[in-house]
Amino acid sequence: MSVFLVHGFRWARNEIRIHVVLQEVDDAAPNNLMCGDSEEAMNENFRELYPGPMANLPPLRFIEPLNPNNEKFKYPSEPFAYVADVVVQSEDVIDVTEVMNKGIRAAQWDAMADLRDIIAKGEKIGWFVVHNGDRQLAQQERLRKDENGANGMEIEADAIAGAEAVEAEYSKGLGEQVARLQVHNRSDGRIDMNEKADKKGGKFKKLFRGDSR
């Protein structure tokens, strides 16, 4: 099992799915943002949409909790992911005090707060310990360390197949869910979901990676 100490905030799964479909982030798997090229695709999308906050942030990580004993949710196990600007990963022990005492630069903290207010207003920014029991993910994170943070490592086909199976289960009612959503333009830069959904009518099927290939 991989253990992550992360600094950031939670992003609700439904908000992730809506963001991915309306922004047409085709390479992102919204039910498992640690899958494949999802993190790279989301960072590219965020830099385009939110250049102000992103200019003061390192490449973001999108950390997924996963309880392998939870039969209802396999990919993911929770209705949210963590958007993080600091991530320390281990399969054993993390010295939490040592990591937290390094602190966060003021400009970086402010940028995270600005980003949080845009995509997940009301969520707490802080330090979280996240457990993920995916064995393929543990292998991926070891490769990430070995390659000094290089992105784009290939994930085992069965892990991707598992994620896509659950994505298909959720996709059935997504169009109806987004159609009911009432979000208005605000001064903090949120998207008017209804207006954009009308313009894209019928493109909700592009939410999942399997539909875009």
Quick synopsis:
This protein is α+β, with helices and mostly antiparallel strands and 213 residues long. It is 43% helix and 15% strand. A four-stranded antiparallel beta sheet has the order 2-3-1-4.
Please characterize this protein's 3D structure:
- By secondary structure, this protein is α+β, with helices and mostly antiparallel strands.
- The longest helix is centred in the last third of the chain and has 15 residues.
- The chain is built from 10 helices and 4 strands.
- A 4-stranded antiparallel sheet has the order 2-3-1-4.
Helix/strand-derived category reads alpha+beta
* Largest sheet data: 4 strands, antiparallel
Average pLDDT value? Answer: 74
Helix percent reads: 40-55%
Count of helical regions? 10
Q: Give the CA-based shape.
A: globular
Q: Rounded to an integer, what's the Rg over CA atoms?
A: 17 Å
Strands in their spatial order, largest beta sheet: 2-3-1-4
**Total number of β-strand segments?**
4
Strand content: 15-25%
Quaternary state of this entry equals: single chain
Low-confidence regions: 149-163, 182-213
Alpha carbon gap, first and last residue:
31 Å
The SSE order reads EHHHEEHHEHHHHH
Task: Give me some keywords for this one.
213 residues, 4 strands, disordered C terminus
Describe the secondary structure blueprint for this structure.
Blueprint: E1 2-12, H1 13-23, H2 38-49, H3 51-54, E2 61-63, E3 80-90, H4 96-101, H5 106-119, E4 126-132, H6 135-146, H7 157-171, H8 174-180, H9 193-199, H10 209-212
